[in-house]
Amino acid sequence: MHVCRTEKTNINRGLITARTLLTGADGFDVQVITRDRSPGGQWAKERIYPGLQLNNVHGEFRFSARETVSAPEGSTGDTLLPGKIMFETKILKISRGDTSGEPSCNISVKNCKTGRLDILRFYRVVLCTGGTSKARIPDYLSSTVAQKANFSQPIIHSADFGNRLEDILNIIPPSSSEISRSIVIIGGGKSAQDISAYLANQGREVTVVYERTGPSIAGARPLPDFMRKSRLLSILSPYISLRTRLDKFVRETWNSIMADSFKAMGIREDSPLRLTFSLFWNVQTNDEGVPRPNGFHALVNEGKINVIAPARMTGYAGDGHSILLNNGPSVKADLLILATGYASSWTDIFDEKTAADIGLYRHQLVNYKSLRDPPPLQPENTKWSSSIYKAILATNDGYSFEVTAHWISSYFLGDKMNLPRNADEALKHAEREAMWLFKRHPDLNLSLNEACTSYSTFWTWPQYSDELLEDMYLQSMRSGGNWFTWPFQVISINELATLHEEREANRRKNV
Ligand SMILES: Cc1cc2nc3c(=O)[nH]c(=O)nc-3n(C[C@H](O)[C@H](O)[C@H](O)COP(=O)(O)OP(=O)(O)OC[C@H]3O[C@@H](n4cnc5c(N)ncnc54)[C@H](O)[C@@H]3O)c2cc1C
Question: Which InterPro entries does this one have (predicted)?
C-alpha cells in the first residue's frame, strides 16, 4: 500500500512551529496554548477514531528530527515540548496591545476546567488554530431548529465522532432482520466517507446524503516512489505560473487520472460515486492509493452503504425522526451525523476592527480572466480576503509545516529575507495570488479560514516550500538530481534536518 494511511501521528502545525521556534539559535521563549487535553490537534488522542485515515500525498506528518520529537503512544505534550503547552485553555480574543514601543498582542483566555478568565501578553503570535477545528453546522440544521421541529433523535457533528463513538454504537445496534435502526450521514467529504465506512464495517445500517463527494485518486497497483513521492505530481498540478497551453495539458492529464481512478475503484458509469468535484478545479483530493476492500467506495459499490445523491438535507420533518431532502421523500434517521465541514477558527477570536486591521476582511475581487469554462462560483465564495502575504498556511504535511515554521522564525528574528520592500508591494502580491486562486479553484472551501482565500496549495506544496526556502536564501529543490531527473527524486523530510544550522550560517555571513 502506498498511502501511509495507518501512520500514527500526533504531530500538527502548532507543535512543529513551536518546536522550531524554540530550537537552536532561534531560541524563542515559546508558549503553546490549546483548548485540548492532549497534543496533536486533529490527531490528538481525544479526536481520532478508528477508520480515520491520513490521506496525504506523501503520507507524512512528521518532523525532520523525528527521533527527538516523535510521541510514543501514551506520551504527553511534555515529551514534545517540556512544560511549554498550556492545555485546556481556550483563546477567546486576540487584540493588539499597546502600540507604542515593541508591538504586542493581548490574548484573552479561559481555563476550560475552572472557567477562570485571564489576559496574557505576548510579543509575537503564530495562529495554528487549524482549518478543521471548529465544526460548521448550517443554521437550518441546528439543534434549535431540530428541537422546534420535534426531531428527537441524536444529532452529532463529525468533529465529535471520536468521543461519541461508544454512544453511537450503543444507540444503534448492528442491523439484523429484527432490528433496523439507521444512521444518516449528511455530507460527502472525507469525514463522511471514513465514518460511513467504519460504521458499515461495524454492521450498522448507514445512509449517506450528498450533492457531491470528495474526489479520490486510486490505482490498481502502488505507484513507485519516484512518481508519488517526487515533484512529479506537483509540477503537473496547476500553479500560479502555468501558461494556458500547459493548463490544457494538465486538465487532460487530471481528467485521465480521474477516469483511471474510477476504474481502479470499480465505480460504474451510473454510480453516485461519480458525482464528485473535478480534480482539475478542486484543490483537495483524497489519495486512496490501492482501493481497500472495506473502504468507502467498495462498500458503496457492494450496496453496504446506501447513498442518496445528488441531494441536500433542507431541514427536519415534523414526525420526530425524519429529515427533509431538497429532492425526494423524507428519510428516517435514528441517528444523524452532520459531516457538514468546518468553519473558520479565526472568526471568533478577532473583533471586526482587529480583523480589518490585520487584513482578514473579505471583499469582492476584481474579475480575473484566465481559464475557460470554470464551474460556477459557490455563492459563499464571492468575497475573498486577499491581504495575507503568502498566507503562510496552505497545505497539510510535515514538510511544508516545517519550512513554514522556519520562515516565520526568520521573519520574527529579522533575518535577511527575500520579501516585498513595503506593505503596498506585499498587498499587490497577495491580491494577485488571491485573484489567481479565485479563478483557478472556484470550489475552494473558503469557510475554513481567510488564509485559504489568498494562497492555498495541495499537490503543489513542493513548489510552495521551495519558494519559502528561497525567501530565506536557502537551497531549494533539496532532493537533488540533474536537469532531467529532478522531478523524479524522492522528497524526504530529512532534507530539512539542518535548516537551523543553515539559517544560522547565513546570519553569520549576513547573507
Ligand atoms: C476528519 C479529518 C480528517 C483529516 N484528514 C487529513 C488527512 O488525511 N491529511 C491531511 O493532511 N489533513 C487532514 N485533515 C486536516 C487537518 O486539519 C490536518 O491534518 C492537521 O491537523 C492540520 O494541522 P493544524 O495544526 O493546522 O490544525 P489542528 O490539528 O486542527 O490543530 C488546531 C489546534 O488549535 C486548537 N484551537 C483552535 N481554536 C482554538 C482556540 N480558540 N483556543 C485554543 N485552541 C484552539 C485546536 O483545539 C487544535 O488543538 C483532516 C481533518 C479532519 C477533521
Answer: FAD/NAD-bd_sf, FMO-like, Lys/Orn_oxygenase
